[in-house]
Specification:
The chain is α+β, with helices and mostly antiparallel strands. The protein contains 35 helices and 59 strands. Helix 14 runs antiparallel to helix 15, helix 18 runs antiparallel to helix 19 and helix 28 packs antiparallel against helix 35. The longest helix is centred in the last third of the chain and has 32 residues. The chain is extended, with a radius of gyration of 48 Å. About 12% of the residues have low confidence.
């Protein structure tokens, strides 16, 4: 869109804020925008911007992978990371994974999709470009300054921190720290990996190395890492060993004719860059802007070579922040550097010389103007305290720019070239300074001794007017310099004698035109090129045209209604003379008016005329007009710029829009037409850029309106207002104020202020330095108001002491009257003193003679005081009234007034006793109320103590929740048994408990003797330390029952976490909890044994030695008995509270709910171990029936919860021989249960053990079975079967054990119980009917409720189909005469359900309570075994087939059994 442009200055103090891709495109972060600059040609060119960040850009990186090099990533202080397409300038995606400002970002050179970023809090985030996923790590709680991804190993990232630490992390292992590199003792500014993998290229002398006498010879895999730090050293590290191998100290090079003093710690940013293809060469920045090339293999002291030594002035003049390099296709290798001197330089790596320099701008471009004498010489007034003069016509260096900064020290807001004298440039600044530079000399500027009080808006050269008298030297006309500023004053300066006083032209205007009224403040002026008339714009929108040199008012143009911002006369070299009288004006209205003043100027009227009709009105802008310029090449061609963000070219005679330029982001502030090219215009704006553009190449002709205007405003809003952070720091010895560019500093000398990016009071960078280097400063928007700027400036006036307010302002004001009145006062006072009869109407201290009360008697003084009091009351200065009453002796009145006004203070209270005790007491009470309103409760309570109101002071503190202070006061002043003390503790405990401060609340309860409440409060936290503490508190305090319950809760939590030693220790403190210790003992033994069997993968936090795995042939109940007897003193012979009967009675009260599939395995283990504990206690009590039932429950816990492998393993541990009647071989215990329930339990246990062995036998023959049953694999059907308990018993149901035997070594007939088969068949039928009923209810609800949503239909359809198919199959196989499902009704299904329920009711409870494995499943497995092995006898086969014919009714079992029954 534009030809040439000067971009905004790159952000300072960022580790990587610029990067260049392989095609030579440079991206630079400046403020909240990324500028794209093509550096591949012999000269650079800005080709676009990436706009979107809401805060300062802190990092930028290109993807360096082929086919993706146009993709880039940026980070910002707004916490976002954005991905961009640099070709289309479009945002691809945005990640907001950070909560705080991001300080560094890098696109991995090793992985085309990985981007890593880090923020101020120390959080590292990995962003995956192709998937959009992010992963966050927190390797160190420190502020990240820089990070870089390894070019050789995608998962390795080096992170540098503010405190000098460097950490190597592995992002593939959740940010695991690989090495911590310690050596630097200050901020890490930059990190760079060697471009070559391995560590065998460098050699160094012993004294250069920190860790070894040389660098690794490449034994270990790794890569070198270079780091630059604020501690003035560059270090090379071995990533394989995590140690430093070389330290390079920055050289002190001479600059500007003087050596750098090593004792003075200069401002420093140490950037390091390791160029590709140069594994032994490293580039780093230096102290004052120099770049240094290090040769890492060179021996001797000087390992470095300076860049730019072939000629003077090549180097940067201030510190360098970023360096990046690119190898172009034409074999040129370039290095790009950015610096605090606001220049971007390009270096040739072969010669180390500077190829070109691109100046950048650090502030708003307030003014730009071409010299009328020097062709193509463009001057810029910028908000970074500098003037740039650009020779725009040079062909060799397209950016031939000189910078002027001396004597300015503030934003440059106005410029004007001398119309005749080449090189003479006047400037005006934000702080009211006016000066003149000779741009062809190196001399500092001449500064006018007359300063404006506010911002200089306009400068203009014109003919002198009285009282200045300039002689016409040599017949040449003379010029005065006129300046207009924010206070509304126009000053005339003598350029030959700027040290003299400038004159205010308002006096001449008043005198010439006999004006008595106050003139409107002036805001702009423009001299007609012939010097005959001057146009002056005013704050009220009026434009006055005066005739020189007397400044006689010719006319007043009353067209605008808002402040005039710019005035311009048409040039004189037009062929049409009538155009010479055109005056264009722009104001804070959006319309531009052009007036033809020919008649007024050629025929001056006798009295001023008022013009209200314009010659032309130019409508199109949508915001205030800020600048304009007439084309010197055309007739009546005008360009205007506006707050709407555009520049508009007008054909004034046709009042038509010609072209509209929209290249700026934000307000456009200045404009000028090229003096040599009719098609070229230059504009500058609040986006810190200067842009050259062609009128003929613009897409639009008019400013944006409607939606376009909205879009443009959104684009302008990319610069939102930010909080200003004033971070003050000073270096050693009181260093100068610190520097900042677009980026706020993070620490050290990095930041003074952060800029505001929006609104009329926008600010940019500030810096100050003691060295003779161009400083930068804040930017303030021009002309928000004329008389007073909207922003209060922090200048030196604020440092002056404020004059105190007068106690007697009325009488003091009388001393500022005219001299005649003051002399008359002397006569009146003399008459009063020396005459018996004072002058008529003269009463000292009253009326017009109030001030004489100070010089007369006391009564007159009192009268004066009364008048002064009235004045203070009207002004609201009641404190002054109090002091006047105090001085006059009315102490009680003074205190009364201060009390009424709520303005009592310590001083008044201290003198109150002078008025008596009662007055003092009332004053104290009033002061206490006042202090309470001011929320100074402690001070109020202390004052109550002074009048012996202790209880009131305590109540005051308590009512405002200052319990700690109230308790301290009571304990210090009152007896220990004071009731109020207990109330305070109780109230405070309630507040603390509500706020979650349980330990503090417990202390309050303990202080009042409420130990029970203390223990309960501590236990509310419900963690192990809290429960342990609460149990101890309860035990010590005698609350035995509470202590036991809390200890038990704590022990259960520890047991669930497998901290067995901790659980036993908690319980051992309570003697009555022995049975629970026994339970945990069993739980630990069970957990250890299961873990040893590898069916459970658990690792205990702590455990006892007796729980270690022992001999495998010993059953677990024998182990339990041995441990109980040896370590807990519990055996068959123990008595008292250790007797088995008593312990069993205690344990019966403990709940043992039936576990479900959702209960965690550790909890199920605790349930099972509880039953196992009861079983062993029953054994010790010789209760065989209870023993068998508890053993069955212990096994059933795992089976009911779905942990079938664990259940099978527990059976193996309980009965190693596979016989449930043998409880213990060690103690010769056999089980002979007598009651039916115990027998049923024994039978159930035995069948499950046989069931497990059946599968083991089948697995041993699995190869043969698979070969012979390829067509009909029973495993799929078997997997669908259910045991009575409701859990699936597939081949996963028991743990695999390979045991080869041709014969069954168990009685398989136990598995074929017809009673259980019949019960299971009925239960299956009940489940089928329940499913069909549910399907019917769903179908009915659909019919009633209409069409359900598609998602519900899709979800329910498969269930309905499968249910229908299964029910149809089962009915068809059951025989003829049964109806299909769609013929069945709810009534018929309910009848069937009732019938089955009756059948189930007739089944003995023992069968339902102690189920067997699925009988049908066992039949199928046995029949399959019979085909592969002769181990199954004929009678068993016949029995199995009979059960299949009778009870295999479902479609799946019918299919599986078909081959055996046909």
């Amino acid at each position: 869109m534009h030809e040439r442009s000067l971009p905004a200055s790159p952000n300072w103090y960022c580790s990587r804020c610029s990067d260049v891709n392989s095609s030579g495109l440079l991206g630079v972060g400046a403020r909240n925008i990324i500028y794209l600059i093509d550096v591949s040609a012999s000269s650079c060119r800005v080709v676009g911007e990436l706009v979107g960040h809401k805060d300062v850009v802190s990092g930028f990186s290109f993807c360096q992978h082929a086919g993706q090099s146009h993709i880039c990533v940026s980070s910002s202080n707004d916490g976002s990371v954005r991905f961009w397409d640099s070709d289309s300038k479009a945002l691809i995606k945005e990640h907001a994974a950070h909560q705080t400002p991001v300080t560094a970002v890098h696109w991995s050179p090793a992985d085309r999709n990985l981007v890593v970023s880090g923020d101020e809090k120390g959080i590292v985030v990995c962003h995956w470009h192709h998937t959009g996923d992010t992963a966050s790590f927190f390797p160190e709680p420190r502020t990240i300054f820089c990070l870089t991804c390894s070019p050789h190993t995608w998962s390795t990232v080096a992170v540098g921190y503010k405190d000098g630490m460097i950490v190597l992390i592995d992002v593939s292992k959740k940010g695991e720290v690989m090495h911590r590199l310690r050596g630097h003792d200050d901020e890490i500014h930059s990190l760079a990996w060697s471009p070559l993998a391995g560590e065998d290229t460098l050699y160094s002398r012993p004294e250069d190395s920190e860790a070894t006498s040389g660098v690794s010879a490449g034994d270990e895999k790794g890569c070198y890492l270079a780091s630059g730090s604020k501690d003035q050293t560059v270090r090379i590290w071995s990533s394989a060993r995590g140690k430093g191998v070389m330290t390079l100290k920055l050289p002190y090079v001479k600059k500007r004719g003087s050596a750098v003093d090593p004792g003075v710690k200069e401002r420093l940013w140490l950037h390091v860059h390791w160029p590709k293809g140069r594994p032994t060469q490293l580039v780093s920045s230096c102290f004052s802007g120099e770049l240094v090339m290090w040769d890492l293999t060179r021996t001797g002291k000087q390992k470095w070579t300076l860049f730019g030594t072939s000629s003077e002035g090549q180097n940067h003049s201030r510190i360098v922040f970023n360096v990046s390099s690119v190898h172009l296709q034409d074999d040129r290798e370039l290095l790009i550097s950015t610096s605090m001197d606001r220049e971007i330089k390009c270096w040739d790596m072969a010669s180390l010389d500077c190829c070109w320099t691109l100046p950048t701008l650090g502030g708003f471009v307030y003014a730009l103007t071409f010299s009328p004498v020097g062709a193509g010489c463009l001057a810029l007034g910028v908000g970074d305290n500098m003037i740039r003069v650009w020779n725009t016509l040079t062909t060799q260096n397209q950016y031939d720019t000189r910078t002027f900064w001396q004597g300015i020290k503030s934003k440059v807001t106005a410029l004007a070239w001398h119309p005749k004298k080449e090189g003479s440039l006047s400037f005006g600044t934000d702080d009211g300074k006016v000066g003149v530079y000779d741009v062809f000399s190196n001399k500092p500027p001449q500064i006018s001794s007359s300063y404006h009080r506010k911002t200089v808006y306009t400068l203009a050269w014109g003919p002198p007017v009285p009282p200045m008298s300039f002689g016409a030297a040599g017949g040449k006309p003379s010029y005065s310099l006129y300046s207009c500023a924010g206070e509304g004053v126009i000053l005339q300066h003598d350029p030959a004698k700027l040290s003299g006083e400038a004159s205010d032209i308002d006096k001449l205007i008043r005198d010439t035109n006999d004006i008595k009224h106050k003139l409107s403040p002036h805001t702009d002026l423009s001299w007609k090129p012939d010097g005959k008339v001057v146009a002056i714009g005013n704050e009220d929108g009026c434009i006055d045209v005066y005739q020189a040199p007397s400044l006689k008012l010719l006319c007043s143009i009353q067209q605008h209604h808002k402040i005039i911002n710019t005035l311009r006369w048409h040039h004189e070299h037009s062929s049409l003379s009538e155009l010479h009288y055109l005056l264009a004006s722009g104001s804070s209205n959006a319309t531009v008016y052009v007036h033809d003043l020919r008649s007024v100027i050629e025929n001056p009227p006798e009295s001023p005329v008022v013009l209200t009709e314009p010659y032309r009105s130019l409508c199109g802008h949508t915001a205030k007009i800020t600048g304009m310029a007439w084309s010197p090449h055309h007739d009546a061609r005008l360009v205007t710029v506006s707050y709407d963000g555009t520049a508009q070219v007008w054909d004034v005679l046709q009042a038509a829009a010609v072209s509209n330029y929209r290249g700026h982001i934000g307000y456009v502030l200045s404009v000028d037409w090229s003096p040599v090219d009719p098609d070229v215009i230059w504009t500058g704006g609040k986006d810190f850029t200067l842009q050259e553009w062609r009128v003929s190449k613009q897409e639009f002709t008019k400013p944006p309106k409607g939606k376009k205007m909205v879009d443009l405003k959104e684009k302008m809003k990319a610069n939102p207002k930010q909080k200003r952070k004033n971070k003050k720091a000073s270096g050693p010895g009181g260093a100068a104020p610190l520097e900042v560019n677009g980026k706020p500093g993070i620490g050290g000398q990095k930041a003074a202020t952060e800029q505001e990016l929006s609104g009329e009071d926008e600010e940019d960078e500030v810096s100050s330095t003691n060295s003779p280097v161009p400083p930068a400063t804040f930017e303030t928007q021009r002309k928000s108001s004329t008389v007073s700027k909207s922003k209060d400036k922090a200048d030196s006036n604020l440092l002056k002491k404020k004059k105190p307010r007068s106690m007697m302002p009325v009488s003091t004001s009388m001393d500022h009257r005219p001299k005649e009145d003051l002399l008359q006062d002397c006569i009146s006072l003399a008459s009063i003193k020396h005459s018996n009869a004072p002058p008529a109407g003269c009463v000292p201290g009253q009326g017009e003679h109030i001030h004489l009360g100070l010089f007369s008697d006391r009564q007159a003084l009192y009268r004066m005081f009364e008048a002064e009091e009235e004045g203070h009351v009207e002004a609201g200065h009641f404190d002054s009234v109090v002091y006047l009453r105090l001085w006059s002796g009315d102490l009680q009145g003074a205190l009364q007034l201060a009390t009424e006004r709520g303005e009592l203070n310590d001083h008044l209270l201290s003198i109150a006793p002078m008025a008596g005790f009662e007055v003092w007491r009332r004053t104290v009470e009033a002061f206490v109320k006042q202090l309470c309103l001011q929320e100074l409760y402690l001070k109020a309570a202390s004052h109550l103590l002074s009048i012996n109101k202790l209880y009131e002071a305590v109540d005051l503190l308590r009512s405002h929740k200052l319990y700690r202070e109230a308790i301290a006061l009571v304990k210090a002043r009152l007896p220990a048994d004071e009731p109020v003390l207990k109330e305070l503790y109780t109230c405070w405990a309630a507040v603390l408990e509500r706020d979650g401060h349980f330990s503090a609340a417990a202390k309050c309860h303990l202080a009042t003797g409420a130990s029970f409440d203390a223990a309960k409060v501590i236990a509310r936290k419900n963690d192990v330390p809290s429960l342990t503490t609460a149990a101890s508190v309860a035990r010590i305090s005698g609350e035995v029952a509470l202590g036991q319950s809390l200890a038990l809760r704590c022990a259960k939590d520890l047991a669930a976490a497998l901290d067995w030693v901790g659980a036993q220790e908690v319980l051992s403190s309570q003697e009555s909890l022995l049975v629970h210790r026994l339970h945990l003992c069993v739980a630990e033994l069970l957990a250890a044994t299961l873990a040893d069997s590898q069916v459970v993968s658990q690792s205990a936090v702590s455990g006892h030695s007796w729980a270690s795995p022992g001999e495998h042939h010993i059953c677990i109940q024998d182990k339990v008995r041995d441990v109980w007897e040896r370590h807990f003193g519990v055996s068959q012979k123990s008595g008292g509270h250790c007797s088995a009967g008593a312990l069993l009675q205690q344990l019966k009260s403990v709940e043992s709910p039936s576990p479900t599939a959702s209960v965690p395995l550790r909890q199920v283990q605790l349930y099972s171990s509880l039953h196992l504990t009861r079983a062993v206690l029953s054994w010790l009590s010789d209760d065989d029936g209870q023993l068998m039932k508890e053993l069955w429950r212990a096994v059933a816990c795992f089976r009911d919860a779905g942990h079938l492998c664990v259940s099978a393993e527990l059976c193996r541990l309980l009965f190693p021989d596979g016989d449930v009647s043998v409880c213990s071989r060690k103690h010769s215990k056999t089980l002979n249960p007598t009651d039916e329930e115990a027998k049923a339990a024994a039978s159930s246990l035995q069948t499950f053990i046989h069931y497990q062995r059946l599968y083991e036998h089948w697995w041993s023959l699995s190869t043969q079975i698979q070969n012979r049953a390829a067509d009909s694999n029973p495993t799929d059907e078997v997997k669908d079967k259910m045991v009575n308990g409701g859990a699936s018993e597939s081949e996963e149901s028991v743990c695999p054990a390979t045991r080869r035997s041709d014969k069954l070594d168990f009685d398989a007939s136990l598995l074929l119980s017809e009673r259980h088969a019949a019960c299971q068949a009925v239960q299956r039928s009940v489940r089928e009917i329940q499913e069909r009923l549910a399907a019917m209810v769903l179908q009915h609800s659909r019919a009633q409720g209409g069409q359900l949503d598609s998602g519900e239909k899709e979800a329910d359809a498969p269930t309905q189909i499968s249910t229908t198919a299964e029910s149809l199959g089962s009915q068809g196989s059951a025989g003829a005469g049964q109806r299909t499902e769609d013929q069945e009704t709810l009534l018929s299904l309910s009848a069937k359900m009732s019938e089955h329920q009756k059948q189930l009711a007739d089944v003995p409870d023992t069968i339902k309570m102690y189920p067997h494995p699925d009988i049908i499943e066992c039949c199928l497995v046995l029949l399959h075994l019979s085909e592969a092995s002769p181990s199954v006898c004929e009678s068993l086969q016949d029995e199995a087939k009979g059960l299949l014919r009778k009870y295999a009714t479902s479609p799946s079992t019918l299919r599986a059994s078909q081959r055996f029954l046909t």
